[in-house]
Design goal:
This protein is mainly alpha-helical. It folds into two domains: about 55 residues; about 50 residues. The chain is built from four helices and no strands. Helix 1 packs across helix 2 and helix 1 packs across helix 3.
């Protein structure tokens, strides 16, 4: 079984630099998967042979998310937090509504039971001519 030769460290660094530059140009986060595809290597093979380059060269060069005014990652976090607060408020209001309806149903059930009891006094009204 003939296995293709693995690329040397300089070739891998060049591929990492290419992926980093392309990701920055597109406004995306660079990934190891993109480097692996660029080199045509499987993930396990890439990680097994180049883990030192991954941790020492590639990962430190990945730009950290910044607070962007255009609704980037920081804006997305704020929007998500507002959405969570709104949903929690709605949830609280819905729980209160359910409690009110449950109490109303309980009261109606108790009233229904009281009206169906045989001990309830039912009077006959006199006929019209008996008055």
């Amino acid at each position: 079984m003939n296995r293709p030769a693995l690329p040397d460290a300089d070739t891998v660094r060049a591929a990492m630099d290419t992926v980093l530059a392309a990701a920055v140009a597109r406004g995306r986060r660079p990934t190891l998967t993109a480097v692996e595809r660029h080199l045509g290597l499987a993930h396990a093979t890439f990680y097994r042979h180049y883990s030192d380059l991954i941790t020492g060269y590639f990962q430190p060069r990945i730009p950290r998310p910044t607070a962007a005014a255009d609704g980037g990652p920081a804006g997305a976090d704020e929007t998500a937090a507002r959405t969570v607060r709104r949903l929690r408020q709605e949830n609280t209001e819905l729980r209160r509504t359910v409690e009110v309806y449950a109490e109303m149903i309980r009261q109606l059930a108790a009233e229904n039971d009281a009206l169906r009891q045989p001990s309830a006094v039912v009077r006959s009204l006199p006929a019209r001519g008996d008055v």
